[in-house]
Prior knowledge:
By secondary structure, the protein is an all-alpha fold. It contains 13 helices and no strands.
Amino acid sequence: MPDHAGALLAITLVAAIVNGALGYGFSTIAVPLALLFFTNRVLNPALVLVEVAMNAWLVVMNRDALPAVRKRVLPLVAGATPGILAGTLIVARLNPAWLKLATFVTLLPLILAQAAGIRRPFRSERAVGFGLGGGVGVLYAVTTVSGPPLALLLNNQGLTKHEFRAALGLIRLALSATALLAYASTGLFTAGSARLLPAMLPALAIGVPIGGWIVRRVNPETFRRICMSFDAWIVAFAISMLARALRLLDPGAAYGIFAAVVVIDAVLLYRFFSGARSGSPSFARVAAAEE
Length: 291
């Protein structure tokens, strides 16, 4: 078992609960927390192995919806492949501390966009999917995170709940399998990565069913917003710590980043819960989309 095995077990359990409830969000929660203890080079290969299994299971559970989404996701998958190759080279060559900072800086606006509930349908789905795929591929290879941009795309395209989960599972299965091959070809799989798995697998087996149980009793959109807010705080805190450690900012300015994100997120949460209490049309549309 690795050092910080207890922390990794707890992190994986929380992330698995979120994934079990929403159908995505495992890496979005796990990566910012786990990077406080491990580097991308050690963490990413272990997460990719886990995600191959998780995404394959998601596809199997929503296989009835695959015919409706298979052709729609192909452009994004095709665009993602070269992005994954480029991202793998970044992981293999970039300084670990700077790679962590780049990961957090990339994730923060995506998480805040999720917390803000941004939803905008795309008319040219094929063109947008191919272009977005390249960016998603780089993001996934560097961070193993793809849920926020994919959810922003798929939530807007009129998919049912099962179609959404089938599309997300199919895309992420392709991403994780391609990243698995790319990591293996560049020698990123090491004994250090393999030692993380015994701490992660039991938490996955427990957390995913718990998440499914929770989401049947809590409004999915409310649960998602709270999870994204928590994630935004963690990412902002990590950026502040790294900016200070790398001597990019003095301590006051560095932790000012964290304070600013907390204020922004508090405003977003206030707007969301105000809309929920008042029964605003926008909240009702979002809630209906989760049914």
